Amino acid sequence: MDLPGRSYVALLGSLLGITSLALPWLSVRASRLAAGEGVGVIGTAGLPLALTVGALWLAALTLSFRPTTTRRVLVLGIIGACVLLLSLLASGIGAENLLHSAPSTARASLGAGVWTSLFAAYLLIHTALSGMPSRPRLRKLLSLTIPVLIIILGSFGVFNHLGLIVEFTGNEQRFFQETSRHLALSIGSVTIGACIAIPLGIAAARSEKAQRPIFLMSNTLVTIPSLALFGLIMAPLSALTFAYPALREIGIRGVGATPALIALVLYSLLPIVHNTYAGIRQVSPAALDAGRGMGMSRRQLSWRVEYPLALPLIGEGVRTATVQSVGNTAVAALIGAGGLGHFIFQGLGQAAPDLILLGALAVIVLALSIDILARSLIRRLTPKGLKTEDGQ
Fold first, then answer.
1. Residue 125's domain spans which residues?
2. In whole angstroms, what is the distance from residue 369 CA to residue 152 CA?
3. What is the three-class DSSP state of 5?
4. Rounded-to-integer distance, Cα 23 and Cα 132, Å
């Protein structure tokens, strides 16, 4: 099966991959706060492994110049997966070798070369996944094999000497505590937001008079920067808790989780309101007429026809709000709400890049995991007729 054109995404990835060979792959520091010294790909991976990675990038570059076919994009995806795993393997082994005779305070962090190589490999894998729409099994195999192999490498201690893993090991208990707090704030705020936003979206779809103020409110809230919104909530909340000390006794204060939760709830309204409105309005009049013809009341039409047909779009709004909330929750650490942002801002204050990465990568992984789970749940909740119509 021939696919039109050439893969410019794969071409960009191949060029970036070749460029990564000229960048430092590891940064070795005498301590977590000291300035780092860059180590190239050969010093990190050794000559044989470096030549292997270079040969794979040249092969990907050659394939990128040729017209794309299903077989070629599959090969590009395999090359991307191999380079990704080899880059991680090389960095782990290189860190162990470089720190073998170094003091215990020394750190080896991933350099620009590894990050560029990983991003370039992702572009090749993305090309393969998007170029095989008719091969769902191959797409799932490629998608699942990479994280499984990374977990296997990690279980054998390949990455133990990297600064990122050292920081995780030193903060393991706190890391899981802050992750739980991050999830509780994110999912809790979206749950409360959905309970408010879905009725507002339905009201906006039912009445043009209600639509304008509801959309104005939700659109205005999302334009306020997160820190500014936290500040706007903290001041009146602090005054309220001082006026009523009983609120402080049950944990409500001007700083911490309470103002963060309120702000996150407000931020979650926009996507859920708009998607609920769109979901209700896109229900086919023919479906409503069929329900009326069967003798359904207005309430029955809503619960048996409108809401089930609108559910996929409403679910997409909740998914979008949840992923956004995971990111916004990181900022809430600045007002004492905790979460994974604790590591990001602590790392910024200490000039410790590995600690920053520990928090940032955890937020990214959390957001991607929730996104994948939410998409899967939405597909399961989508009526069969809509799946057939959308080609899902």
1. 8-162
2. 19
3. coil
4. 32
